[in-house]
Amino acid sequence: MYYDDRTEVFLDGDWIKAKDAKASLFAQTLHYGTGVFDGIRSYNNGNGFNIFKAQDHFQRLKDSAEKVFLKVPYSVEDMIKIAYELIDRNNLTNAYIRPLVYAGPNMILAPAKETHFFMTAWKWAKYPGFEPLNTMISSYLKPSPKSTPVEAKIIGNYSANTLASAEAKKLGFDEAILLDHDGHIAEGPGSNIFYEKDGELFTPKLGNILPGITRSTIMEICDELNVKVTEKDITPEEFYQADHAFFCGTATEITHISSVNGEKFKKKWDDSIGHNLLEVYQQKVMFDEYRGLTIV
Hints:
single chain, about 300 residues, alpha+beta, seven-stranded antiparallel beta sheet, 16 strands, about 25% helix
Protein backbone atom coordinates (compact mmCIF):
# COMPACT_ATOMS: atom_id res chain seq x y z
CA MET A 1 0.00 0.00 0.00
CA TYR A 2 2.98 2.34 0.44
CA TYR A 3 4.72 1.97 -2.90
CA ASP A 4 4.74 0.17 -6.24
CA ASP A 5 7.34 -0.49 -8.93
CA ARG A 6 7.22 3.14 -10.11
CA THR A 7 7.47 4.86 -6.73
CA GLU A 8 10.53 7.06 -6.22
CA VAL A 9 11.98 7.94 -2.82
CA PHE A 10 14.79 10.18 -1.60
CA LEU A 11 17.61 8.46 0.28
CA ASP A 12 20.86 10.13 1.32
CA GLY A 13 20.93 12.59 -1.55
CA ASP A 14 19.72 10.28 -4.34
CA TRP A 15 16.39 9.63 -6.03
CA ILE A 16 15.88 5.88 -6.29
CA LYS A 17 13.05 3.42 -6.72
CA ALA A 18 11.37 2.51 -3.44
CA LYS A 19 11.91 -1.17 -4.18
CA ASP A 20 15.66 -0.56 -4.31
CA ALA A 21 15.92 1.35 -1.01
CA LYS A 22 18.00 -0.48 1.60
CA ALA A 23 19.12 0.03 5.18
CA SER A 24 21.53 -1.89 7.40
CA LEU A 25 20.16 -4.54 9.70
CA PHE A 26 22.78 -3.30 12.18
CA ALA A 27 21.37 0.24 12.26
CA GLN A 28 21.09 1.55 15.81
CA THR A 29 17.59 2.81 15.00
CA LEU A 30 16.38 -0.69 14.25
CA HIS A 31 17.78 -2.15 17.47
CA TYR A 32 17.30 0.69 19.97
CA GLY A 33 14.76 3.09 18.44
CA THR A 34 17.23 5.97 18.12
CA GLY A 35 15.71 7.80 15.19
CA VAL A 36 13.07 10.42 14.42
CA PHE A 37 10.33 10.94 11.89
CA ASP A 38 7.56 13.31 11.00
CA GLY A 39 4.24 13.11 9.20
CA ILE A 40 3.19 15.82 6.74
CA ARG A 41 0.27 16.12 4.34
CA SER A 42 -0.02 17.70 0.92
CA TYR A 43 -3.41 18.79 -0.41
CA ASN A 44 -4.78 19.42 -3.88
CA ASN A 45 -5.80 23.08 -3.93
CA GLY A 46 -7.33 23.13 -7.42
CA ASN A 47 -4.22 24.76 -8.87
CA GLY A 48 -1.60 22.20 -7.97
CA PHE A 49 -0.91 21.18 -4.41
CA ASN A 50 0.22 22.61 -1.10
CA ILE A 51 2.21 20.99 1.70
CA PHE A 52 0.59 22.13 4.92
CA LYS A 53 2.91 23.84 7.42
CA ALA A 54 6.00 22.31 5.84
CA GLN A 55 8.28 24.80 7.61
CA ASP A 56 6.94 23.81 11.04
CA HIS A 57 7.15 20.08 10.35
CA PHE A 58 10.71 20.05 9.03
CA GLN A 59 11.91 22.34 11.79
CA ARG A 60 10.41 19.91 14.29
CA LEU A 61 12.21 17.06 12.50
CA LYS A 62 15.57 18.82 12.90
CA ASP A 63 14.86 19.67 16.53
CA SER A 64 13.80 16.09 17.25
CA ALA A 65 16.94 14.71 15.61
CA GLU A 66 19.18 16.91 17.73
CA LYS A 67 17.59 15.52 20.89
CA VAL A 68 18.81 12.02 19.98
CA PHE A 69 22.21 13.24 18.72
CA LEU A 70 21.47 12.81 15.03
CA LYS A 71 22.43 15.55 12.59
CA VAL A 72 20.09 16.19 9.67
CA PRO A 73 22.32 16.92 6.65
CA TYR A 74 19.79 19.30 5.07
CA SER A 75 18.34 22.68 5.95
CA VAL A 76 14.62 23.11 6.51
CA GLU A 77 14.41 24.90 3.14
CA ASP A 78 16.22 22.02 1.43
CA MET A 79 13.83 19.47 2.91
CA ILE A 80 10.80 21.48 1.77
CA LYS A 81 12.17 21.48 -1.79
CA ILE A 82 12.80 17.74 -1.63
CA ALA A 83 9.23 17.17 -0.40
CA TYR A 84 7.70 19.14 -3.28
CA GLU A 85 9.84 17.31 -5.80
CA LEU A 86 8.89 13.99 -4.19
CA ILE A 87 5.19 14.72 -4.74
CA ASP A 88 5.84 15.78 -8.33
CA ARG A 89 7.98 12.76 -9.17
CA ASN A 90 5.28 10.39 -7.96
CA ASN A 91 2.38 12.24 -9.63
CA LEU A 92 0.63 12.84 -6.34
CA THR A 93 -1.30 15.82 -4.98
CA ASN A 94 -3.18 14.60 -1.91
CA ALA A 95 -0.48 12.65 -0.11
CA TYR A 96 1.07 11.75 3.21
CA ILE A 97 4.80 12.53 3.42
CA ARG A 98 7.10 10.61 5.75
CA PRO A 99 10.63 11.94 6.35
CA LEU A 100 12.85 9.69 8.47
CA VAL A 101 16.21 10.36 10.10
CA TYR A 102 17.92 7.17 11.25
CA ALA A 103 21.26 6.10 12.64
CA GLY A 104 23.80 3.92 10.90
CA PRO A 105 25.32 0.65 12.17
CA ASN A 106 26.03 0.90 15.88
CA MET A 107 25.53 -1.81 18.48
CA ILE A 108 26.67 0.22 21.50
CA LEU A 109 24.46 2.46 23.63
CA ALA A 110 26.09 5.70 22.52
CA PRO A 111 25.36 8.20 19.72
CA ALA A 112 25.91 6.80 16.25
CA LYS A 113 28.49 8.47 14.03
CA GLU A 114 26.50 7.87 10.87
CA THR A 115 23.16 9.52 10.03
CA HIS A 116 20.82 8.71 7.12
CA PHE A 117 17.95 10.73 5.66
CA PHE A 118 14.97 9.15 3.89
CA MET A 119 11.73 10.61 2.53
CA THR A 120 8.75 8.95 0.89
CA ALA A 121 5.08 9.70 0.22
CA TRP A 122 1.91 7.80 -0.52
CA LYS A 123 -1.85 8.23 -0.70
CA TRP A 124 -3.24 7.75 2.79
CA ALA A 125 -6.76 8.44 3.98
CA LYS A 126 -7.47 9.72 7.48
CA TYR A 127 -5.97 7.50 10.16
CA PRO A 128 -7.28 5.26 11.66
CA GLY A 129 -9.70 5.43 8.74
CA PHE A 130 -13.05 5.00 10.45
CA GLU A 131 -15.24 7.00 12.79
CA PRO A 132 -16.86 7.66 15.17
CA LEU A 133 -14.32 6.12 17.51
CA ASN A 134 -15.22 4.12 20.58
CA THR A 135 -12.21 4.62 22.82
CA MET A 136 -10.84 3.29 26.09
CA ILE A 137 -8.40 4.60 28.67
CA SER A 138 -5.34 2.46 28.13
CA SER A 139 -3.36 0.64 30.81
CA TYR A 140 -0.24 1.85 29.00
CA LEU A 141 1.07 5.32 29.90
CA LYS A 142 2.60 8.05 27.80
CA PRO A 143 6.38 8.04 28.47
CA SER A 144 7.51 10.44 31.16
CA PRO A 145 9.47 13.55 30.13
CA LYS A 146 11.94 12.52 32.81
CA SER A 147 12.84 9.44 30.76
CA THR A 148 12.61 10.69 27.16
CA PRO A 149 11.97 13.96 25.28
CA VAL A 150 8.21 13.60 24.80
CA GLU A 151 8.05 16.76 22.69
CA ALA A 152 10.09 15.05 19.94
CA LYS A 153 8.86 12.47 17.44
CA ILE A 154 11.34 9.81 18.49
CA ILE A 155 10.77 6.34 17.06
CA GLY A 156 11.31 4.58 20.38
CA ASN A 157 8.64 6.70 22.06
CA TYR A 158 5.96 5.08 19.94
CA SER A 159 6.25 1.56 21.36
CA ALA A 160 3.83 2.45 24.18
CA ASN A 161 1.45 3.99 21.65
CA THR A 162 1.47 0.86 19.52
CA LEU A 163 0.81 -1.33 22.55
CA ALA A 164 -2.04 0.93 23.69
CA SER A 165 -3.73 0.79 20.29
CA ALA A 166 -3.32 -3.00 20.09
CA GLU A 167 -4.75 -3.40 23.59
CA ALA A 168 -7.81 -1.30 22.71
CA LYS A 169 -8.56 -3.30 19.58
CA LYS A 170 -8.08 -6.60 21.39
CA LEU A 171 -10.70 -5.51 23.94
CA GLY A 172 -13.20 -4.49 21.26
CA PHE A 173 -12.55 -0.74 21.11
CA ASP A 174 -11.51 1.32 18.10
CA GLU A 175 -8.70 3.29 19.69
CA ALA A 176 -6.91 4.07 22.94
CA ILE A 177 -6.38 7.16 25.06
CA LEU A 178 -3.15 7.25 27.04
CA LEU A 179 -2.69 8.86 30.44
CA ASP A 180 0.52 10.59 31.44
CA HIS A 181 2.68 9.48 34.38
CA ASP A 182 0.61 11.69 36.71
CA GLY A 183 -2.66 9.97 35.71
CA HIS A 184 -3.98 12.81 33.54
CA ILE A 185 -5.34 12.51 30.01
CA ALA A 186 -2.40 12.82 27.58
CA GLU A 187 -3.21 11.90 23.97
CA GLY A 188 -4.18 9.20 21.52
CA PRO A 189 -1.61 6.77 20.09
CA GLY A 190 -0.92 9.13 17.17
CA SER A 191 -2.83 12.29 17.93
CA ASN A 192 -3.61 15.05 20.39
CA ILE A 193 -7.00 15.29 22.04
CA PHE A 194 -9.60 17.97 22.79
CA TYR A 195 -12.93 17.80 24.55
CA GLU A 196 -15.92 20.14 24.55
CA LYS A 197 -17.82 21.21 27.66
CA ASP A 198 -20.45 23.97 27.88
CA GLY A 199 -19.37 25.64 24.66
CA GLU A 200 -15.63 25.64 25.45
CA LEU A 201 -12.73 23.40 24.46
CA PHE A 202 -10.18 21.84 26.77
CA THR A 203 -6.91 20.11 25.90
CA PRO A 204 -3.99 18.73 27.94
CA LYS A 205 -1.34 21.33 28.70
CA LEU A 206 2.20 21.05 27.36
CA GLY A 207 4.84 19.21 29.31
CA ASN A 208 3.74 15.58 29.11
CA ILE A 209 2.42 15.54 25.53
CA LEU A 210 3.63 16.00 21.96
CA PRO A 211 3.02 19.67 21.06
CA GLY A 212 1.30 18.76 17.82
CA ILE A 213 1.28 21.06 14.80
CA THR A 214 -2.35 20.21 14.10
CA ARG A 215 -3.09 20.92 17.76
CA SER A 216 -1.64 24.42 17.41
CA THR A 217 -3.57 24.89 14.15
CA ILE A 218 -6.81 24.01 15.94
CA MET A 219 -6.01 26.59 18.59
CA GLU A 220 -5.30 29.21 15.90
CA ILE A 221 -8.68 28.51 14.29
CA CYS A 222 -10.40 28.72 17.68
CA ASP A 223 -8.82 32.12 18.23
CA GLU A 224 -10.16 33.26 14.84
CA LEU A 225 -13.64 31.95 15.69
CA ASN A 226 -13.62 33.26 19.28
CA VAL A 227 -13.86 29.75 20.72
CA LYS A 228 -12.30 29.60 24.17
CA VAL A 229 -9.63 26.93 24.61
CA THR A 230 -8.16 26.02 28.00
CA GLU A 231 -4.94 24.03 28.35
CA LYS A 232 -4.88 22.17 31.66
CA ASP A 233 -4.34 18.91 33.48
CA ILE A 234 -7.42 16.78 32.72
CA THR A 235 -8.51 13.89 34.90
CA PRO A 236 -10.30 10.89 33.39
CA GLU A 237 -13.35 11.84 35.50
CA GLU A 238 -13.48 15.28 33.83
CA PHE A 239 -13.15 13.67 30.42
CA TYR A 240 -16.07 11.32 31.11
CA GLN A 241 -18.29 14.38 31.70
CA ALA A 242 -17.46 16.02 28.36
CA ASP A 243 -20.15 16.96 25.86
CA HIS A 244 -17.98 15.75 23.00
CA ALA A 245 -14.35 15.02 22.11
CA PHE A 246 -12.06 14.59 19.13
CA PHE A 247 -8.55 13.54 18.16
CA CYS A 248 -6.39 15.74 15.94
CA GLY A 249 -3.13 15.19 14.09
CA THR A 250 -1.59 15.26 10.63
CA ALA A 251 -2.64 11.70 9.81
CA THR A 252 -5.85 11.89 11.85
CA GLU A 253 -6.79 15.44 10.82
CA ILE A 254 -9.88 15.88 13.03
CA THR A 255 -11.63 12.65 14.00
CA HIS A 256 -14.52 12.56 16.40
CA ILE A 257 -14.73 10.35 19.47
CA SER A 258 -18.15 9.02 20.35
CA SER A 259 -17.41 7.28 23.64
CA VAL A 260 -14.82 6.44 26.26
CA ASN A 261 -14.87 3.17 28.23
CA GLY A 262 -18.39 2.52 26.98
CA GLU A 263 -19.78 5.90 28.08
CA LYS A 264 -21.20 7.83 25.13
CA PHE A 265 -20.78 11.59 24.88
CA LYS A 266 -24.16 13.32 24.85
CA LYS A 267 -23.65 15.79 22.00
CA LYS A 268 -24.10 14.84 18.36
CA TRP A 269 -21.02 15.27 16.16
CA ASP A 270 -22.86 17.55 13.71
CA ASP A 271 -23.70 19.92 16.58
CA SER A 272 -20.23 19.95 18.12
CA ILE A 273 -17.45 22.52 18.01
CA GLY A 274 -15.17 19.83 16.57
CA HIS A 275 -17.42 19.42 13.54
CA ASN A 276 -17.30 23.17 12.86
CA LEU A 277 -13.53 23.19 13.26
CA LEU A 278 -13.18 20.34 10.77
CA GLU A 279 -14.95 22.35 8.08
CA VAL A 280 -12.62 25.32 8.61
CA TYR A 281 -9.56 23.09 8.86
CA GLN A 282 -10.32 21.41 5.54
CA GLN A 283 -10.24 24.81 3.84
CA LYS A 284 -7.16 26.03 5.70
CA VAL A 285 -4.91 23.11 4.79
CA MET A 286 -5.31 23.66 1.04
CA PHE A 287 -3.76 27.11 1.06
CA ASP A 288 -0.79 27.64 3.29
CA GLU A 289 2.82 28.66 2.92
CA TYR A 290 4.26 27.58 -0.45
CA ARG A 291 5.79 30.72 -1.88
CA GLY A 292 7.33 29.73 -5.16
CA LEU A 293 10.32 27.75 -3.91
CA THR A 294 12.53 26.57 -6.74
CA ILE A 295 12.39 22.79 -6.74
CA VAL A 296 15.76 21.23 -7.54
